[in-house]
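dumping this here before i forget
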Amino acid sequence: MARRADLSETTCLRRVRSLEAAGILTGYRAEIDPVAAGFHVTAFIQVSLDQRVEAASDVFKQAVEREDWVLECYSVAGTYDHLLKVIAPDNQALAQFVLKRLAIYESVRDFQTVFVLDTVKCQRVVPSI
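structure:
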């Protein structure tokens, strides 16, 4: 990394430590190809919650955090309350996940699944301001 940035190793390490301390660098991870790992289906699931159910959002969020196939979950404004990015081995497994893992929560009022046909861009690097 120091070579690519044309910095000394000491300077590079100091900058990395500074970014970590500032909370800008939040971790390190290996990138795994979902298809190579056996997950051939990616879908986005939009979920509406029944706001009349007390603490519906909190219960749903806690449940989603325990689901390994849910890669990302966002609370959103608009027609739906949450947007989930989910992977599954195949369509049948995804259907079982939706019907037996997501739809069972009494707070789930409605959901819509959108299947990914092709990934055009998936950028994990935050651009400079």
